[in-house]
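Please produce the structure of this protein holding flavin-adenine dinucleotide.
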Amino acid sequence: MTAETEDLAALREAIRDVLSTQADRAAVRKFINSTAAMDASLWAQGAELGWFGLNIPEDDGGLGLGVSALLVLFEELGRAVAPLPVLGTVLAAEAIVHGGNAAQRAGFLPRLAAGQRPAVFALPGLNANLLLSEHHILSGDISLVIDAATAQLAILPASGVGGDPVFCLLDLSQANVAVEPQKMADLTRQAATITVSDLRIDPSAILPVDAAAMANFAGLLLSADALGAAQGVFELTVDYMKTREQFGKPIGSFQALKHRAAEHHIALVGARALLAHTATLWETRHPDAAFHTALCKAHICEVALTVATDAVQLHGGIGFTWEHECHLFLKRIYLNNQLFGTTATFYDTAFDGLAESFSRAA
Amino acid sequence: MMDQTVNPTPFYPLGHVGDIIAFRAAVAGWLNATVPPDWRQNLTGASEETYLKFQNWWFDQLKSVGLATPHWPKSWGGAGLPLSHQVVMIEELARIGGPMAEMFVVSLFHMPATLFANGSPAQCDRYLTGVRDRGEIWCQGFSEPGAGSDLSALRTRAERKGDVYVVNGQKVWSSFGMHADFCLLLARTNPQAPKKNAGISYFILDMRAAGVTVRPIRQITGRAEFTEIFLDNVEIPVENLIGAENAGWQIAQSTLAAERGLLIFEHAERMTHALRRDYQALTEQHGKPLEDAGLRREFTKRYAELTAVRLLIKQMIEQGEHGQDSGLLAAVIKLYWAQLLQNYTSLMARMRGLDAQRAMPLSLGTGHNSGDYLSDFLQSYGWTIAGGTNEIMRTLIAERILGLPR
Ligand SMILES: Cc1cc2nc3c(=O)[nH]c(=O)nc-3n(C[C@H](O)[C@H](O)[C@H](O)COP(=O)(O)OP(=O)(O)OC[C@H]3O[C@@H](n4cnc5c(N)ncnc54)[C@H](O)[C@@H]3O)c2cc1C
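Below is the modeled complex.
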């Protein structure tokens, strides 16, 4: 509903076009039933089209189209529940853009942009048990790293000397590193546990990373993915309500159901406006961008979960089947809700930012 | 202070049309010089008479600088102010928390929207001038005891007898009916019409005509803002029929559309400032910012929704500027806003704890941020019930936007 610039609209159409053949119902289903850790042909297609470098500056080998373009990509991926482990790569690139030295930028960014090195990024949390000794020896493990099953490069959080969090850039294909894939309830994405034994980290590979900013950036992408997925499952649901008949009429003519659909619609319209606005705040480097991002993660993921939860209910028995795609959306949105912080933590972050913005304005 | 009728202010916003920054400064300067800082206190516990006087005074102030009817086209004596300037005017009004000309809402929005589209030149001339120059007050006589959401079931009867229609029936919930000079009246002219909504006509009713009785109805807030209107052989001259006989239903749609748009914009802008004041007050009250995690998150969620609805309103205004029809977006905004307002005012009442539960003196005309939190919450039903209930809006959105079957 938000007026989108022509460029973004064209990008959206191009992405949707690719996904409608490469990640249509059959393709998604095929991936889920396979043992593959990722859909290699979809990855190759995305790489060719520059999806992984949408937000990487042109000087670093990306397309430099900005955050808005990236959000379009994530929204469309969510809408198609596309099995593309792009989040990790985009986050790693963001961390290198902000914290990498010239050599790292030159060495990694063009290859990340080209999709040649799938990567991951993780934040400290209960699942992270990596220690970096004073001699820069890294060991321990970190579980539930999203997209890690297929990654070659990682930026991982470790406890440094005195417990200070540090971020280490490492190649996952080394002998001292083991990657154990972990299937998720969300069938369209995979994670892994990464175990590191006595790996020496070069001091230059310890990146300065603003963890809060990265959590926010991840949150923004996840909001877009959740919004797209919610929109996708809502469209399915409205279509179903028009065709499924009970008591001699389409179930969509029952007012109790109509009213729920209307509530979902207005919530999604509001969520979309909030996301588009936040993207603008990013593009203009507005001081309120950060807290609006937290607001997006909390609010949009919450709205999306409400919509997806009800979508299964509105489908009845068929919605409860493995065969039907409702659960793919529901599980993907559920995971988005939990990744990089919960709805509650993001509301708290947003509140603090709002309070700060009030005192700034006062 | 309220009796001051002339305000010798050097600010004349309409002299700055075209220069939006200067216009904003002039509006702000004029408001600062004009709005009495203690107007809210003066209306707390005030009599209906004081309220009426204040509303008239405020309208006169706006009028004196051409800001009462700035949104009317020049051909009808308005300022033809571009939408962008109206937006600025509302923003400034909200920023300083100035009064709303709420008694004049029908006069300024519903009546002109109806007459611009359907009125005869003579009607426009007489009644638009009446509002613009004399501050005439209008009310809306649509609802009846048996016709609310199903407005087409209305039974008030108008029978043509020579040069007049003779009207009998009863209207209910008419806001400000006791102060109104005129009423936008829907009545049935053809009871035999095959469809219920085909036999309805639209009239201008003079509230002082013989046979019109108005009785205030006390509301849950304690205030008697709306009324019932009894019509007993009231004669309405035929020239007061708007549009063609039996075309009232269609015409009424243009009246109802006026309820959305800029009106919600003004309320949302006011809530934006109220939210900040509420945040500051609550922080002072508790010594630190909103300690209770549940309430704090709810507050933040409401902020997200307020941000969203303001963005949607901006979209609607932009569509309006480009002459696009934004009726469906307006329906989304109406429902979104009504629920947000109710949830926000309820949250505020809960955040104030027992304090907000004491009976407070009536606060007249202070909108949804009167400082009496429970009363603000109660007021919010005005949005969830009037102008299409939330349920009616949901059905409309489901059918007209989502295309679900009737
Ligand atoms: C503060 C206030 C000011 C008002 N001012 C004016 C005014 O100035 N002039 C005027 O003419 N009117 C005015 N009204 C009246 C208002 O337009 C009506 O109250 C409204 O249209 C609802 O009609 P009702 O009260 O008869 O409720 P009803 O229509 O009887 O509704 C009762 C309940 O049933 C629900 N319902 C009804 N039909 C359906 C359906 N088909 N599907 C699902 N649910 C349904 C409603 O949503 C509501 O919850 C005002 C009302 C309020 C509260």
